[in-house]
Amino acid sequence: MLQKASGLVAPLLTLVLAFLVSGVVVLLTTGSIRDTLKTYRAIFRGAGLNWFFDVGSHTIGVPFSTARVWFPWNTNDAVSTAASNLEQTLLLWTPLVLTGLAVAFAFRCGLFNIGGNGQYLSGSIAAVLIATELPHVLNLPGLLLIIVSILGAMVAGAALAGIAGLLKGTVGAHEVITTIMLNWIVVWVGSYLFDVGGPLQTHAAAAAGAVPASADIPDKAKLHAFWGDPLLQGLHVGFFVSIAALVVFSLVLNRTTLGYEVRAVGHNPEAARYGGINVARNYFVAMAIAGAFAGLAGGLDLLGWEYRVDITTVQGANIGFIGIAVALLGRNTAVGVGLSALLFAALQTGTASRNLDPSIFAPGVGGALAVIIQGLVVLFVGADVLILIILARLRGGRRKKAPA
Amino acid sequence: MHIAWGSRRLAFVGIAIGVFAALVALPPIGARSPVFPIAIGLLAVATGLAFWLIRGERRVGGYAIAAGLAGLLIGYFATRSSPTKLDTVVVWGALFAAMLRYATPLAFASLGGLFSERSGVVNIGLEGMMLMGAFFAVWGSDVTGSWELGVLIALAAGGAMGLLHAVFSVSLRSDQIVGGTAINFLALGISSYLFFKLYGSQGTPSNLSTIPDVHLGFLGHGFIGDVFGSLNLMIWIGIIVVFVTWIVVFKTPIGLRIRACGEHPRAADTVGIDVYAVRYAAVVVSGVLAGAGGAYLSIGLGSAFTENMTAGRGFIALAALIFGGWRPFGAAAACLLFGFASALGVNLQAYSTSISTLFTALPYLLTLVAVAGVIGRTIPPAADGIPYKKQ
Fold it and tell me: Mean pLDDT across chain B, nearest whole number?
């Protein structure tokens, strides 16, 4: 009898498999094992993960100061790009944790939330709407404006996901279908809003022939960047919000009645119903909370470094989809999501055209490799049976005994 | 049975009246008074309502009401618009030809999905299978210099993705949604990787051998000639595939086996049907058909590949499958409806570019309404999405 693969071994084995198979793809196109290893090393450095191994004495890059620190802190360092690369990785980690939690929370209730991308986008759209339009009506101080915008983003994400939860609870419509449809509805409504001639498009951008976009949010609504250049996508305080969200996720699931009911429904909806739990209500609540996580991701990205919504963001966003891989690899737990978000953020940053050594990969190829690795991880994570077979072979081989 | 079909037919009359409400205000009739579309639209709503309430025909009656309201609105706005603009937007021959062009890639993928889901394997990887087909059609056509081989290679590429999905969802009993998601990631990654590696920033070559159009000069230059006179070969093949799918799935023993595996695999297994083999075959066929849709997209409708060029069409195909109630003609009709929406959306740019963007969301919205069961629920095959374990 095969058990469910669990613990740390199975996810790690999944990763090893994914990197091995994608290594074969690289090997087939580069033609040598050395080049393949070189590629992975370049991705590692591009993600700034060498930062952790770069202990020494570094200037902090602050004018008129000679203070030195153990790890590279200066993101404008001409010698090493480790600091700026790691800063980019963590900037991406911030929303990935949240879209990962959006998938994970729904999963714990037995729901597959594929709509993270739409919920993320609706969060961004709500945040840009509130942050640009509210100051015309009401002159709020910066902090309040930020809080209202973020709350609006969470409500938007929760409302969108809530539709799917409601339909699941009332008429039994499959949440995978409804969230896929909602994703695309948001993409095209968003495109309509910000495209040329759309109601929210700024005329300044259209006149300049730039990518159609919304207005910029006012300076006071921007989140404080504490690492790196705030004008060049510095790491903003939303980073800590994501850390807090991991804690909240864990507490709500494991220490509250709501979390208990959600998990009970996730284990067995019939048994939960028999035990007096309102299953339909829990479907709605779980989806709404999941959507709030994804909406928060969209809001933080917008106020943290995007500052506006443009048409390429609307049509090209994939943070929500990567969130699926993050949650699956992280086994839907807070610690797992935090770690796997770091892995996928590093992968994404390390393969970005501007971080990857162009002699290794032409522009675009690296990003495509990242998508292949994500796909392989999702593929292998889904295949518990495959991982268990391999594990059994490994153990059997050690004992020199054929597995049953 | 007799009565039920009779009332259904009358409810379809309601839909027809609803469509006519819009037509009356459009060329060539072009009534200029808003009274006509409003009155006819209300008549359609009344017909639909009557069948909904009296005969319990919720599904078709609901569609009649929806058609009546839509016809009323479209007709009303048409009477408010200038006749010259209407003439540029509503060119029936061109609109219907464009509808067929947009519907064909959807129809191939949608029918592919039908095979897979009727056998009990949910396939949300259609988008990825289509994308692989689109890339490999261009690559094959480029390397071999012939579109026939390009299409064959595209079919093989789509089929390979189908096989991968089958291995994981049938043999390894992975979650089929997770597997489909993985297929979409993988196809996007592999096609972009090869595209950038092989063609770089130059893009695919401009002198590709493409799937030819079929010129039927004898149809003349009337409406029929405008619509069917010079359609792409793949469109005709697509129309044939709709009928073939219906015959295979509903009129042959093979189809009975496929449906048995999708409704009750244990029972199918008991009577000696190899559930795994049937599901493998069905999922591979779904990949092959989705690949054909992709090939039409890249070397039939156009003559190039761009990164992620399917842009959600695989999901519209999935939507059409659901909207059409997992039936060949239903799915084909849904593809035509969505294709018509696309064609109209493009023409509506005469009024406003942004409105035509909004129109793109229509298929997804309609499908959401359909699965929500506001007007009659759509019901998937009973064992759709459930891995089967042999005993």
Answer: 86
